[in-house]
UniProtKB/TrEMBL annotation:
GO molecular function, one term: oxidoreductase activity
Official protein name in the record: NADPH-dependent diflavin oxidoreductase 1
Cofactor(s) named in the record: FMN; FAD
Gene3D superfamilies: 3.40.50.360, Nucleotide-binding domain of ferredoxin-NADP reductase (FNR) module (3.40.50.80), Translation factors (2.40.30.10)
Record-annotated Flavodoxin-like domain positions: 13-152
InterPro entries according to UniProt: CysJ-like_FAD-binding, FAD-bd_FR_type, Flavdoxin-like, Flavodoxin/NO_synth, Flavoprot_Pyr_Nucl_cyt_Rdtase, Flavoprotein-like_sf, FNR_nucleotide-bd, OxRdtase_FAD/NAD-bd
Keywords: FAD, Flavoprotein, FMN, NADP
A Pfam family recorded for this sequence: FAD_binding_1
Listed GO CC annotations: cytosol
Amino acid sequence: MSDIVHDDHPRTLTILFATETGTAQEIADRVAMQCRRIHVQARILSMDSYSPAELISEKMVIFSVATTGSGKEPRAMSRLWNMLLRSDLPEDLFEDLSFAVFGLGDTAYEKFCWPAKLLSRRLASLGATEISARGEGDEQHPLGFAWLLCTYLDISAVPRRSFFAMLRHFVSDKLEEEKLDEFLSPEGADELYDYCQKPRRTIREVLEEFRSARIPREYIFDVFPILRPRQFSIASSMKAGFYSAFCLRHPRQIHLCIAIVRYKTMLKVPRRGVCTDYLVHLKPGDRLPIGLQKGLFALPPDTATPIICVGPGTGAAPMRSIIEERTFLGSIANTLYFGCRSAHKDQHYATEWEAYVVAGSLTYRPAFSRDEPEGAPRRYVQDLIREDSKRTWELLGVQRGWIYISGYQVLSCPFENVLTKTIHCSSANKMPAGVKAAIMHAAQTEGAKTKEQAQDFVWMLEREGRLVEECWS
């Protein structure tokens, strides 16, 4: 993406501050510096040198507002604030204005950040759009580092090599320096892997071992990775949820099917997933910030086109969405291969699948790997597809159907060249690669293809968008 700022769409904003001791101005200067780093032109002004009439023509303004006395606004803010308090101002006066407010205060006083709170409310009441939740700086807070580490920085992540390169600058112990130099040398790559990636050692655990490290606060965002948002497949159809009488059990809702991450590392250290552990502790009524992102799966244009869904475990989530929407659209050419350990313990959405079967809109093929008789080999979804070779070829090779694969993948397991190219293996049974191998088997046994032609057939499905994977680790 080009960094050039075009004149017809200038990237500009105004930063207004009101201060008594200079702290609010310092915050404004720091924000302006960050804006310039991303090629945004920032104009900084004290509120007492800013004409209130200009605010009507602004597109984006950031306010940095101090608190004086027991909740009073700084004197520099008085002229602008008195203008905003006029009763004859129309409610849509600032409909074209986007704004953000950062307040500075002290929780020792009852009216903490009061001017900032009043300012954001008044601007919103006059039609302005607040683009970010109001920030509130507390003089009593110990620098806010604990809040950063809990909310924005990921100290539970397995560190990359670049973390150790940064850490090397901040250790003072001679032995620790030598250890880091060894990790960072070309010869130490395997040792670093054995120390860090293999046992899934976290940043926090590394810092507990390199105790001489003293990371200056200005380097915090350079050393620690940002906590990344977690992505989950939506387990319900938005279209069917809004309009279908069959799906009125969850109108205007988004459903998720999430496996709680809990395990022990090679070092026998208990681990919990950062996001899933957070979700577990939410209570009904709690608010959760989310965003929507377009997924990989798309439905065939023709509802008569058959589809095969392969979704063991929580991989059933996007399959539920697909089947729900296909049923809403009147399609009956739907097949689901679902896999789990036991029919009675973790067969997600079992009653729904059976209801679709009874209605004639779904062929349901479950595999229960732990329900097999003692001594019998475990059966997985790819085994069922191999058993159904004739039907698989009929749907994919003859009727030009589509197949969707979704499930958990362990990236640390060996990669397998099933089709003479690299394919990610999935859980213990290498599901996605196994499914593709089962399709190849169907092409050879039922479609009279050679091994090379069967490989080409699977690649063709991928090129045409008729074989789509949505897997995660």
